[in-house]
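Apologies for my clumsy wording, but can you show me some protein sequence, whichever is easiest, together with the matching C-alpha cells, please?
=====
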Amino acid sequence: MVNPRCLLLGVAMALLAACQPRPALRADHALAPAAPGADSLVRLQVRADCRGCLVPSGATLEVLLIVDADSDMPRVIADERFSVPRDLPFDFILRHDPRLVPAGAELAMRASLRDAAGRLRLLTGQRITVDSGAGGIVHLALKRYEPAGP
C-alpha cells in the first residue's frame, strides 16, 4: 500500500512542475541542434508577426522550409502547422533534418495563416531567406492577403 504522505508529495511536485513558465526564445540558441542522443534535427526559432493585424479565432499558421527556392526544383524539407493564439507575435520552433540540405544550398521560409474556415488571411509577402549558420530568430513578417481583382 502506498503511503498517503508520499502520494500527496508526488502530486504536489507534479503540480509545481506543470506550473513552471515556458522558457523564452533566446537568439543564441536559435539553430542549436537538439541535445545529444535526442535526435539530429536542427531547431530554428521563428517569430511570426503582422503589424496591425487581427488573428481570427481558430487560426492555423502553416510554415514551409524550402531548399533552393529559386531553382527549377525546390524541395520542402519541413512543413508544420500551428494553432495560433489571438495575439501576434507568435513564437515557435521549426525542426528540420540537416542531411536534407546539400552543401551550398539556400534555405527559404514561407508562411500563411488561415482562419477556421480555411480562408487565407495572412501570408509572407516575399520569400524569407534563412541562414542556418547565423543563429538568431527567423522573423516572418506576415501581410494581409488581398486577392487580385477581376
In short: The two ends are 75 Å apart (CA to CA). The longest helix spans residues 4-18. Confidence is low (pLDDT under 50) at residues 4-38.
